[in-house]
From TrEMBL:
Highest rank taxon of the organism: Bacteria
Pfam families cross-referenced by the UniProt entry: PCMT (PF01135)
Source organism per UniProt: Neoroseomonas marina
GO molecular function: methyltransferase activity
Keywords: Methyltransferase, Transferase
UniProt xrefs under InterPro entries: FkbM_mtfrase, SAM-dependent_MTases_sf
Any GO BP: methylation
Protein name per its UniProtKB record: FkbM family methyltransferase
Length: 347
């Protein structure tokens, strides 16, 4: 049965009597006899309130039986219930359409259309089957990003977080998304266009680094179809794919301050942070979400020392709350995590 074929449960009904609205108007305007009939004013109002409560209960039963079909905004979605309820609502709206160019079109978070790589065994399976990625991070972002803010999404891949950020900042805000892989950048560009986010999201096919580079070789886990239009961009060294891309220090990308920075490239975290200095200085209320992997950083301890000199170290736990941690814990117990770095207390 198609998911959007809504079949409401059959609910027991009371004995036939005049409808609630006609009786309310009858009472208000005395169209059905004396306003002070046999039941009396207070008795009739008490009965009406009881029937309203019954109607609300019936609507809740319908929602429980068939789920929500009208997810309008992320704010409404994450306000709608606990984690299990929200996950169920999102999964209920998943749909997948394989396409001949090696991509698969799916629906994420109940509303965004998203092109993914059919060969991707990392993010794509979660988007295709669950409709979301890293729920705890998604929920945290939804609580801590506001209308009108400016956000950077570094290592945007398909633009999942770019779309989330765009939905949250709205038309008064801006999102700048960086993705150096030409195949992924093409999917990112299509995702921004198909969701009508072009007026909010600015795209750059470049990498973030410690300084400007005309052509920096970046690793590429996904290259698209073997004989696709982007195949010639990629070369292989020691069995690993890579491609050339321009690079820019984030402090030089644009003038002015920003509010939110997501760094989704754990392997390049050292060089990205090295190119942040000026941006951090002019963005006192900046909130950074950074994927940290002690195994992939070049100098993990030095990176943590540089970050902790500016911000308290916190990580996003599975309950979507930012919790304090130490560099020692990040080097031992939590070697792979998402850090929250800011002087702003998280919600």
């Amino acid at each position: 049965m198609p998911k959007d074929d809504t079949h409401f449960p059959t609910l027991p009904t009371a004995a036939s009597r005049p409808g609630l609205v006609p009786r309310l108007f009858s009472w208000l305007f005395a169209t059905g006899g004396s306003r002070h009939g046999t039941l009396g004013t207070h008795e009739e109002l008490f009965r009406i309130r009881g029937e309203l409560a019954t109607l609300r209960a019936e609507l809740e039963a319908m929602h429980a039986a068939v789920g929500r079909r009208d997810i309008a905004t992320l704010e409404e979605l994450f306000r709608g219930g606990n984690r299990r309820q929200v996950e169920a609502l999102i999964r209920d709206r998943t749909q997948n359409v394989p396409l001949p160019d090696g991509s698969v079109l799916c629906r994420t978070l109940g509303r965004f259309k998203m092109f993914t790589d059919a060969a991707d065994g990392g993010i794509a399976p979660h988007l295709l089957l669950d409709g979301y990625w890293e729920y705890w991070i998604t929920e945290f972002i939804c609580r801590n990003v506001a209308r009108g803010e400016t956000a950077y999404d570094v290592g945007a891949v398909y633009g999942y977080y770019s779309a989330v950020l765009a939905d949250l900042v709205g038309s008064a805000g801006r999102v700048v998304a960086l993705e150096p892989n030409p195949w992924l950048h093409s999917l990112l560009r299509r995702n921004v266009a198909v969701n009508g986010l072009g007026d909010i999201v600015t795209l750059h096919r470049c990498a973030a680094a410690e300084a400007k580079h005309e052509a920096l070789r970046v690793p590429a886990q996904l290259t698209g179809p073997l004989h696709g239009s982007f195949a010639n961009w990629f070369t292989f060294e020691h069995g690993r794919a890579g491609c050339p891309a321009p690079a820019e220090a984030l402090q030089d990308l644009e003038p002015g301050s920003i509010d939110v920075l997501r760094i989704g490239v754990a392997s390049a975290a050292d060089s990205i942070v090295a190119g942040l200095g000026g941006l951090l200085d002019r963005s006192p209320n900046l909130r950074i979400l950074m994927e940290f992997d002690a195994n992939r950083c070049k100098e993990a301890l030095a990176l943590l020392a540089a970050l902790s000199a500016r911000y308290p170290l916190r990580y996003i736990d599975g309950d979507s709350r930012a919790k304090p941690c130490t560099a020692e814990e990040l080097m031992t117990q939590r070697r792979v995590t998402t850090l929250y770095l800011s002087k702003v207390e998280p919600r």
